[in-house]
Amino acid sequence: MAATWTVFTDGASRGNPGPSSIGAVVYNAAGEEVHTVSRRLGRATNNEAEYQAVIAGLEAALGLGGGSVDLRMDSQLIVRQLEFRYRVRNARLRPFFERVVELKRQFESFKVTHVPREQNKRADQLANLALDSGPS
Description:
By secondary structure, this protein is of the alpha/beta class. It has one domain (4-133): Ribonuclease H-like superfamily/Ribonuclease H (Nucleotidyltransferase, domain 5, 2-Layer Sandwich), CATH 3.30.420. It has helices at 46-63, 76-82, 94-104, 121-133, and strands spanning 4-13, 18-27, 33-44, 68-73, 109-114.
């Protein structure tokens, strides 16, 4: 039976655009944290950071063996774009969106869910740790 992963992601940007970072956490089927990503990006918008966090989280889940993934994030815009409910109008977001679509195809099943910010605290913490660790 294929592995099931729950992936929480968050992007952060101070200035929008401004210094930015990503946070992602992967949980196994037992709810145990098995992988984290906390990385500075440089200058980006919040939405660019959100997409890059999704990419990092999905790549981590694939690296752990793929299978099924339940992506959870607090960016309603990105969730709706990934559900094909909203078009990606921003040309700078299109390459990120296309990369996520490519990654989605590598999983046996893929689900994306919008969660309230309060349910995304660990990914938010990881994004802010990376942002706070760099030069101001």
